[in-house]
Amino acid sequence: MDVSKVAEEMCRDEYFSYYLYKFLARKSLVSKSLREALEKAAEDEYRHYLFWRGIVGECSSKLLMLKVLFYVVMFYLFGLIVLLKHLESKEGDAAKIYKEVTGLRPDIKDVVEGIAIDEERHESVFLASIDESRVRYIGSITLGISDALVELTGIYTGSLGAFENTLSAGLAGFLAGVAASISMGIASYAQAKNEGRARPELAAFYTFLAYIAVALLLALPYFVISSLLVAFIVMLILAVAIVAYMTFYVAVLQSRSYLREFAEITLLIFGVSMLLYVIGSTLGNVLGVKI
């Protein structure tokens, strides 16, 4: 291991963390307790940065702002807890590096061990200070999204063989989505109440909201595109994008494999879609019905 290269990388990472924490602390969505924790963490990260810079000299990077922009987008798309959990997942590698560095440079062992302790404290304080409703009700949200994706992509795929215009297909899918979202919300409420969970009405609301949001997004191409095939392709692209978003969110929160989750749900959606396309085409030809 080249200690100078590792120190330079650590230097850049600490400055990035300082810059990111300062940015997050200024956001109005952040609670007072979390803002204080972020500001304290930013001070610690800047002190760590000065330590590593004292070893390697200047360590600025032209890609710093690009990296910050990436995490800012993640913050707005996924929320603070997913962002911090994602950063936390990278700290395991840093802990191994700290251990190797102290073995090669015993003279900085105490300082590096102090940095490692600071990093662990940041994680525990951050996660203890966060209270995001969408995280507490992630099961209800996932239920609504998953069910909507499977049912509605199936309906739209079946419409290729039963409908002649996009407006009819879009209305059929959206109305089915509205009815199903209400049904799913009621089912979610009953399930949460039977399980003795607090605020079952919120579980119902998040399930309903997730379902109706997916229903609206998947119906949108059919209302703005005249070609049934093109609208269907755009709908599938949106469905895959929603799957990618949902699986990344859950995978980060629960420390699961993102690619495996994404592949399983995507294959399920396409499998159901193909089956319903065959059924829709067969019924359309047998009954001679075209809407």
Automatic annotation (TrEMBL):
InterPro entries listed in its UniProt record: Ferritin-like_SF
Keywords from the UniProt entry: Membrane, Transmembrane, Transmembrane helix
TM stretches of this protein: 63-84, 169-190, 202-223, 229-253, 265-287
Record keyword Transmembrane helix present: yes
Keyword presence, Cell membrane: no
Coiled-coil intervals: none
Protein's name in the database: Rubrerythrin family protein
Organism: Ignisphaera aggregans
